[in-house]
Design goal:
This protein has 683 residues and is an alpha/beta fold. It has 16 helices and 32 strands. Among the domains are: 133 residues, Immunoglobulins (Immunoglobulin-like, Sandwich); 98 residues, Sandwich (Immunoglobulin-like), CATH 2.60.40.1180. A hairpin with a 4-residue loop joins strand 27 and strand 28. The N and C termini lie far apart (74 Å).
Length: 683
């Protein structure tokens, strides 16, 4: 006999939860009068079932017949009154915000999106499977213990080296990966892909957005595609186009298998997540999910003008993190990716928007507070992109967060490309930005250091182009950043000039050495280690083609070997990755640092404002090798006085000048123009 409790519907968890004979379905909406779940059979015939119960603002019910593989959507009924913030329309099939798999995409050519506010029935699409995606009930089971149990690497931040990479672009052209899985989660899990990562020595892959996203109609009109994926619509669903198993639910298991394979190789998985906005855009954008369910709960609306969307993202809308429904959605999603998908951390796109409850960014916002107190999320890495269109907040996140440090990128580029009076700022960046973090007693690992990222030039292009070249994007080269702090070193773009080629190669090594020898958490843009170029395109968000994909037939093997050597040196040398220090041995830390002029004297206040281009860092750690790092950004060679070796005599560890020689006894050393030389004193 079945008990009443076994058949009773529940208001939580939200979404579709399988149970014997069907599923519990729960949808939040404060403003709806009725909610229906719509299931589709193999012929596309729709069956609508009203959710009969309501607890608080959650509609729920037990729906028989739902099983793994069921295609479904929801319809929400109430008023259509955009002036009051209401955009309900039962003619519109909506995505379940908690769907764990989504099938299909929007065919903007077939869809009809009228913006006649007096005719909401016209604000609809054809509801055909060809033009409207549907949710899929995915199989939640996965044997994490098959073969060998999945174990999260849990690598300390001080030992972390992040590799930012696109799931598709990394393997789309890899010759050693079978064609049928290139560009997919399975492709990234292939031994050939993992071998590149482990041989290189990185410890974590940071994946560009893998939440289900939709294509932009304006890009499809230009025969372009949203490649980066910052256009989320499903916060629980791995993007179906990256699955070799198709998008009918198999993408969930394939993603889990990828995570398990990467973990088995000792690699962490960090997701670049976009919770600050969705693909629904502003008042002129389509209704795909949240707008039609509870517009005001999920989006920030302009006070007194509810038809308008408050926007600090540049996309048309901002999620309403001041509302429990939106906050709950984000938290449920984060916990899902940790508990069910086993990911190891998150990089939050435009994270500052998520701290804006009433307009201004708040350190003690509900979003940050919920993250901090959640025991599921406490063990994983949290990385903020600490800005949005309304403000720059580097240094403004809690102590247990790390941040993309845009100051590191800018000051490192200025230092090596001839910026004026930048040495003082550069020294701060090299030492983990203590001017940003130490005032609030935050460790150097708060700083995620990077020279390049997906948004901007690749390293090869940073040293080969003085101007952006985004003509392929179809916007007359008006898109993308114009101030790149880049240099072409005499010739714009490709050249056979040996002098220019040699200088560019040295500068690329200088940037990589700066990144991997600096204090903090280094992040490498995937492909920089092999010389990947985008032909000068610094905004390749819409280039799902050879412009963005890795070309494995054009690998700069010398640069790859140099990068691998640097990562290994960092990994094996505690002095090069201090987790906390206050610049003086007397502070009681195992780490210490000295910052010296080229003549080995200490810098005076006047020296920092002079146009010095050379600097020495001496880094030590109790019981470990010490290092003297000599950097010369001048256009001429500089003679360095070498400080006394703290342990054994100095020896050459690595140099971006392939002709650098060191002879004993070592008291002075000429470091050539625009180069880095690293000396080691062995313990």
């Amino acid at each position: 006999m079945t008990s009443a409790a076994a058949t009773r519907s529940l208001p939580y968890p939200l979404g579709v939860t399988l149970r014997d004979g069907g599923a519990n379905v729960a949808i939040y909406s404060q403003t709806a009068d009725a909610v229906e779940i719509c299931t589709f059979d193999g012929d596309g015939v729709e069956t609508r079932t009203a959710l009969p119960e309501r607890t608080g603002h959650v509609f729920h019910g037990v729906v028989p017949g739902i099983e793994v593989g069921t295609r479904y959507g929801i319809r929400v009924d109430e008023a259509w009154n955009p002036d009051a913030g209401l955009r309900h329309n039962p003619n519109k099939l909506l995505l379940d915000p908690h769907a764990t798999a989504i099938e299909g995409g929007y065919d903007w050519g077939q869809a009809v999106f009228s913006h006649d506010l007096n005719n909401p029935t016209e604000f609809d699409d054809t509801d055909s499977a060809a033009s409207t995606p549907r949710c899929v009930v995915a199989d939640p089971s996965f044997d994490w213990d098959a073969g060998s149990a999945d174990v999260a690497p849990r690598i300390p931040l001080a030992e972390t080296v992040i590799y930012e990479v696109h799931v598709k672009g990394f393997t789309a052209q890899h010759p050693d990966i079978p064609k049928d899985i290139r560009g997919t989660y399975a492709g990234l899990a292939h031994p050939a892909a993992i071998k590149h990562l482990t041989d290189l020595g990185v410890t974590a892959v940071e994946l560009l957005p893998v939440h289900q996203f939709v294509q932009d109609s304006h890009l499809e009109e230009k025969r372009l595609r949203n490649y980066w994926g910052y256009n989320s619509i499903g916060f629980f669903a791995p993007h179906g186009e990256y699955s070799s198993a198709g998008d009918g639910g198999g993408q969930v298991a394939e993603f889990k298998a990828m995570v398990k394979a990467l973990h088995a190789a000792g690699l962490e998985v960090i997701l670049d997540v976009v919770y600050n906005h969705t693909a629904e855009g502003n008042h002129l954008g389509p209704t795909l999910s949240f707008k039609g369910i509870d517009n005001a709960a999920y989006y920030r609306l302009v006070e007194g003008e509810e038809s308008a969307y408050f926007d600090t993202t540049g996309t048309g809308n901002s999620l309403n993190v001041g509302h429990p429904a939106a906050l709950g959605l984000i938290m449920d999603s984060l916990r899902y990716w940790v508990t069910e998908m086993h990911v190891d951390g998150f990089r939050f796109d435009l994270a500052t928007t998520l701290t804006r409850q009433d307009g201004s960014a708040e350190l003690h916002s509900a979003f940050l507070t919920l993250i901090q107190q959640d025991p599921v999320l406490a063990p994983v890495k949290m990385i903020a992109e600490p800005w949005d269109t309304a403000g720059y907040q580097v240094g403004g996140f809690p102590a247990d967060w790390s941040e993309w440090n845009g100051k590191f990128r800018d000051d490192a580029r200025d230092f090596w490309h001839g910026g004026e009076n930048v040495l003082g700022d550069f020294a701060q960046r090299f030492l983990g930005s203590p001017d940003v973090y130490e005032g609030s007693r935050r460790a150097p690992v708060s700083s995620v250091n990077f020279i390049t990222a997906h948004d901007g030039f690749t390293l090869a292009d940073l040293t080969a182009y003085a101007e952006k070249h985004n003509e392929a994007n179809g916007e007359d080269n008006n898109d993308g950043e114009s101030d790149n702090r880049s240099a072409n070193h005499g010739i714009e773009g490709p050249t056979d000039d040996p002098a220019v080629t040699e200088l560019r190669d040295r500068q690329r090594r200088n940037f990589l050495a700066t990144l991997l020898l600096s204090t903090g958490v280094p992040m490498i843009l995937g492909g920089d280690e092999m010389g990947r170029s985008q032909g000068g395109n610094n905004n390749a968000y819409c280039q799902d083609d050879e412009i963005s994909w890795f070309d494995w037939n054009k690998v700069d093997t010398g640069l790859l070997e140099f990068t691998t050597e640097l990562i290994a040196l960092r990994r094996d040398s505690p002095s090069l990755r201090p987790s906390w220090f206050r610049h003086a041995p007397e502070a009681g830390s195992a780490d210490s640092v000295r910052v010296l002029r080229a003549d080995a004297a200490s810098f005076s206040e006047e020296d920092w404002t002079a146009d010095h281009r050379a600097i020495t860092f001496v880094l030590e750690h109790d019981g470990a090798d010490a290092f003297a790092i000599l950097l010369n950004a001048a256009e001429n060679g500089v003679e360095f006085n070498i400080p006394a070796a703290p342990l054994q005599e100095w020896e050459l560890a690595v140099s971006t000048d392939q002709d650098q020689q060191v002879e004993q006894p070592l008291s002075t050393l000429i470091v050539r123009d625009r180069s880095v030389t690293v000396l080691r004193s062995r313990a």
